[in-house]
Amino acid sequence: MKAKKKDIRALSREEIREFFQNTGEKAFRGNQVYEWLWSKGAHHFDDMTNISKETRELLSEHFVINHIEVDSIQKSKDGTIKNAVKLFDGLIVESVLIPTPSRTTACVSTQVGCSLDCKFCATARLKKMRNLNPDEIYDQVKAIDQESKLYHSRPLSNIVFMGMGEPLMNYNNVLKSIDKITSEEGLGMSPKRITVSTSGIPKMIKKLADDEVKFNLAVSLHSAIQVKREQIMPFANKFTLVDLKEALEYWYKKTTRRITYEYVIWDGINDSREDINALVAYCKYVPCKVNLIEYNSIDDDSFKQASPHVTNEYINALEKNRIPVTVRRSRGKDIDAACGQLANKQ
Ligand code: SAH
Q1: Ligand 1 centroid vs 91 CA: distance in angstroms?
Q2: Rounded to the nearest whole angstrom, what is the distance from the C-alpha of residue 68 to the centroid of ligand 1?
Q3: Is 260 helix (H, G, I), strand (E, B) or coil?
Q4: Is the CB of residue 262 below 6 angstroms from any atom belonging to ligand 1?
Q5: Does the predicted model carry a pTM greater than 0.70?
Q6: Nearest CA among 198, 287, 272, 207 for reference residue 239
Q7: With contact defined as beta carbons under 8 Å apart, do 296 and 305 qualify?
Q8: Closest to 330 in 3D by CA, of 292, 293, 289
């Protein structure tokens, strides 16, 4: 039975070396196998052509490789590609390749579904089914790297953890996947090119700071007024703006890296002068920049993107206070690949 055997990619290089030593083989085999698993992305023991048949059989008696499979690919007219990724147990998550003239960004999922309840997000409508394993997160990145080379003739340049799920609710596996992505036997990517986006879980943000992570942090703020934030992100009643601010101050003190606030402006929800002033005030606590995200409709009439006029008011107020602000245009909307739209429609 497949599920009974251990997933070999849950083992460290040292553990695989030990396995060989314990079975009377040379520990050196472990290095070869490890390389096949991570650098070369082997999905079957039989792919490991410099390993003898007996050894491959020994491996398959003890282990499985729970690799992902890109089940279907959808291509947007703007070049965005959405992968529906099938996991070893049949569950599906989505990841997205987003090309711009100068870079290719991968947007990856960290959970099947999501445990949080943001009212404006399609993923929130799926209940959380499980956390992804480190290799399942890594494999999404690897698949997009291959697609980037195939379709855009260049490797992947950036990664955002902004797909399905809340990364900080799957803390250990997310960090392990980033270790692999940044390590030489993985993709050797600089952590400066990686951004983890969180809905804002204060305790875990502090833990990131204590763990001295080197990647960037983005926080989905959407309102700097406590009661409003609770209306659109109900879990925020446990994780308050005051606690969030305190955690972000802690993060900045330890890392000296600027935070990015993600912010959608909705008609009649956070489009008033009071909302703008609250955001400007909140931005003064910790060095930051604001990324205004275009709202992507998820068939819910209660949310509508505010007018460009309001967006300009936000931009003017932030710029007047010397807070860097960018506007993120939606990509891949025609294939439901944009922020907040990942929900396995198929
Ligand atoms: N759970 C994490 C990461 C996934 S969501 C987080 O909350 O940050 C990635 C980003 O998309 C977040 O900023 C989220 O608030 C935003 N988002 C969710 N639904 C959206 C929608 N319908 N339109 C635009 N952005 C959305």
Answers
A1: 21
A2: 24
A3: strand
A4: yes
A5: yes
A6: 198
A7: no
A8: 293
For 196-218, write each residue's pLDDT tens digit.
999 999 999 999 999 999 999 99
Pocket probe for ligand 1: among 220, 223, 260, 305, the residue whose CB has the most ligand atoms within 8 Å is: 220
Compute the distance between CA of residue 201 and CA of residue 93 in angstroms, rounded to an integer: 23
278: amino acid identity, one letter:
A
Write the pLDDT tens digit of every residue in 40-82.
Answer: 889 899 999 999 999 999 999 999 998 899 999 999 999 999 9
Per-residue pLDDT at 298: 85
Burial class (CB within 10 angstroms; exposed 0-12, middle 13-18, buried 19+) of 325: buried
pLDDT in tens, 150-183: 999 999 999 999 999 999 999 999 999 999 999 9
Cite the active site residues.
Answer: 94, 339
Pick out the chain residues at pLDDT < 70.
1-3, 344-346
**What 3-state DSSP class applies to 270?**
coil
In whole angstroms, what is the distance from residue 151 CA to residue 78 CA? 13
pLDDT recorded at residue 2: 45
Atom 11 of ligand 1, residue of closest alpha carbon: 339
- Tokens for 203, please give them: 């305790």
Q: Tell me the domains of the chain and their CATH numbers.
A: 6-64 (1.10.150.530), 69-335 (3.20.20.70)
pLDDT of residue 93: 95
Give the residue from 82, 169, 87, 88 showing the smallest Cα distance to 131.
Answer: 169
pLDDT for the residue numbered 41: 85
pLDDT recorded at residue 1:
46
Q: Which of 125, 293, 297 to mutate for ligand 1's pocket (most ligand atoms within 8 Å of CB)?
A: 293
- Block residue for tokens 């007219």: 77
Q: Return the SS3 of 92.
A: strand
**DSSP letter at 168?**
G
Mode of pairing for the β-strands spanning 81-86 and 288-293: unpaired
The runs of H, that is alpha helices, within the chain are 13-22, 28-38, 53-62, 134-152, 171-182, 202-210, 226-232, 241-255, 273-283, 308-320
